[in-house]
Structures are given as structure tokens and as C-alpha cells.
Amino acid sequence: MQFSLSTEQDMTRAFVREFAECEVAPHASDRDVHERFDRKLFEQMASLGLAAIPISEQYGGAGGDWLTFAIVIEEVSRVCASAAAALAAHTLFAAWPIYAFGNEGLKESYLSRLTSGQLLGGCALPSVKRHGAINDYTLAYSGSKNRRELNGRHSTVLQAGVADLLLVFAQSRRQKRKDESLAFIVERNSPGLFIGENIHKMGLRSLMFNSMHLAHCSAAEACLLSKSEEMSEFLTSLSQLAHISAAAQAVGMAQGAYEAAAAYAKQRKQFGILIGKHQGISFKLANMWTRIEAARLLVYQAAWRRDEGLSCSREAAIARKYSADCAVEAAIEAIQILGGYGYMQEFRMERYLRDAKCLASKLGTGGMDIDCFSHIVMA
């Protein structure tokens, strides 16, 4: 693995950091308090090419790699994890699946509008089976080969209340035959699709989650994204990329918490001495920085391996697990350094902690029930 970024990647980081500070950060607290998704901000990021990093220029993308994608998500997360998560979800669970697995008809219908930000994507990702039951996931399809009928419910659909189209996974209900799973693209205004109220969360509050109910919702063969025989590859790729994205978000949050704490330690005096000169504070900052650097390298390694076509399931899961823990720890330590100010909303710290804890749950991968430990042990 190369331990240095390319000139283009360094320039991308600098550009996205400046954009995030000027456009994303100012209203991040307001979006969090009011649980508000800012569609104009998303469209602004899409107009800069940030919503289509790994998609080829043929379809309006940037033609970049997954390492560049991780850098973009990291820098946006540094000031607002929710904005980064919404950007990542749109790319990972809507635009990229159509690009990687969709037929030409789907690409022509949706891809250029997704990469430009004209359309916003969401997803109803599958949960794993536990003890013979499907957790929080009862969608099923039936009908002829040319047109299928979707029925069922999903408790946590990412961006459902604001998205224009949804990636939906469903299983067939057949007697005496093995069930198969398929993935469909379903437009938000499709008859039979009903979206519930926004789910209130402790963290990532401006990233929308809703319940969804489909009752006799018709899906044409043209909307079929992934066939049963492709599902294993499809879900493996989504799992890897979801881990990399969540890990990059965690590194960005940890970096933001560290920078805020370090800046405060260089200004705050106690008994006439800057608190950063006290060993207790300087040790905290040094430990934070060490863990953040280690987490960043794990994320970049996983993204690099994905770009090189190498196996990265274990590396992505390790990066996700370590980075999420690092983000929580960095937020807690930053609050300790800021003292009473750490509990105030305008200093970001309490938001970093809430977002980091939320990211450590399955919501950090768009509601996809992915067990880091099993990937690490069994990969």
C-alpha cells in the first residue's frame, strides 16, 4: 500500500475541507436540532461532483476511486456527520448499485440524474436472519416474471421521506421451492408505497430514517436491479463499502473533536498557564491523535484494497470497528478537555458524541445489520 496520497487526492481534501467549513458547518447545529435534511446542501455537494466520486464520467460521475471517496466523506464528517452520511448513502445505496449492477435502461433512466443531484436516492436494506426469523424485514414479491408485486414492511428505510427513488430488497414467497432474493428500484411516488413518519434518533439527526409499507406495489422487470444469482456479490460489495464509509465518517468526527479540543487547550488558561501545557491534557491530546492516525490508516488500507481488486471484507470490518470506537473515545476526551463548554451545543462536542454512538450501531451502515465481529473473525 502507498502511504502517501496523490496530488489530486491532496487537492480534493483541501477543496472539500474548505467547502465543508464554509457551507456545511454553519448550519449543522440547526439541522441537528430540528432534524432537518437540507436538500439544497445536498444539491450543492452534487453539483461539485461529490455525490458520484466512484462513478465514471460517462454517467456524470467523477471517475474517482474509493480512497478518494473515503477522503471526501471524512472531510464532510469532520463538521457534520449527518451530511456526510446522507451523501454516502445516496452514492453507496442508490447511484453506485445502478452503475455496478443495473442494466442500460436503468442507467439511462436514473444514473445521470442521480450523479447530478437532480434525484436523491434512499434504500431499504436487508437485515440478516436470526434464529430462523428475518429481523425487521418482511418484504416479499410475487407475480409474473415481467411484473412483480411488492408487499410488506420495513422499519428503518434510509432517506425514505425525502428520496425520489428507493433501492428495495425483497424475497419471493413460493411453496415447495427455494426462496430467491431480488433488488428493485422503486420510485417514491409509486402507487402502493407508503412512507411513515421520520424516526427520531439520538445522533445523526438530520439523516432521515422512516418506516415503509408496500401494499400491492407494482415493480416492472425494467426496475430489477440485481438477480438472485448476483445477490451474494451485491451484498458483499455493499457490506464492504458500507464499512469503509462508516469508518471514514468516524475518522472525520474524531478529527473534528480533536481539532476543537486542541484549539481550546491552546487558548484556555488555568492559574495563568495554558491548559495544553499540563501533562494530563497533553497526554489526552497525544493519545487522541495516535488513535486517529491509526484509524485513518486502517480506513485508507481498506479503501485501497477495494480499489486494487483485493479482498477487503476483513480490513473494512476492522476499520469500521476501530474507527467507531476511536470516534466515541475522542468525543468523550474532547468534552473532558472543554469542561462545561463541552456540554453546550455551539461547541459541537455533544453532537460529535451522539453521532459517534449512533454510528457505532447498525444505523451507521444505513440500517444494514452487519456484524463487524463476525467479519473480523470469519473472514
UniProtKB/TrEMBL annotation:
Domain Acyl-CoA dehydrogenase/oxidase N-terminal: 7-118
Residue span, Acyl-CoA dehydrogenase/oxidase C-terminal domain: 244-366
Protein name from the UniProt record: Acyl-CoA dehydrogenase
Alphabetized UniProt keyword annotations: FAD, Flavoprotein, Oxidoreductase
SUPFAM superfamilies tied to this protein: Acyl-CoA dehydrogenase C-terminal domain-like, Acyl-CoA dehydrogenase NM domain-like
Pfam families, A to Z: Acyl-CoA_dh_1, Acyl-CoA_dh_N
Family: Belongs to the acyl-CoA dehydrogenase family.
Signal peptide residues on this chain, from the entry's feature table: none
Domain of life of the native organism: Bacteria
Organism: Paenibacillus endophyticus
Enzyme class: oxidoreductase
